[in-house]
Each structure stands twice: as C-alpha cells, then as structure tokens.
Amino acid sequence: MYLDSTWEPIDFSRLTATCIADLTNKLRLGKIDEREFIENAELVSLDLAITDC
Predict the structure, then answer these.
(1) Rounded to an integer, what distance in angstroms lies between the CA atom of residue 46 and that of residue 29?
(2) Distance between CA atoms of 37 and 45, rounded to whole angstroms?
(3) What is the largest CA-CA distance in the chain?
C-alpha cells in the first residue's frame, strides 16, 4: 500500500510491532489494565490481518 507515488510502501508489520510495544509500555506503567491491553492488541493484530491482505 502506498500513500502516493513519492512515498515508501507502508510496512504494516513494523507498524503493528510499534503499536504492540506502545501498549506493552502503557500496561507496564499502569496506564491500562490487562483487559485493555488484550483487547487493543487483538484489534491491532486484526487490523494488520485485514489490511495486509
């Protein structure tokens, strides 16, 4: 997927890993609980599965 002809392709797996790392940090800092972490991680993974098809 490209944003326009001058941009590099989007690396969705790297983007997903960054989002999961951010969620992990929020969980570690107590900003979210385990339920929120699991729900959000599932949404991020599902989005990757749908987008990367």
Answers:
(1) 25
(2) 12
(3) 41
- Residues present in the chain in total: 53
- Distance, CA of 32 to CA of 35 (rounded, Å): 8
pTM for the model: 0.73
CB 27 within 8 A of CB 19: no
pLDDT digit string, tens, across residues 2-39? 455 666 667 778 888 899 999 999 999 999 999 999 99
Q: How far apart, in whole angstroms, are the C-alpha atoms of residue 6 and residue 19?
A: 25
- As a whole number of angstroms, the distance between CA 20 and CA 50 comes to 17
The encoded tokens of residue 11 equal 């690396």
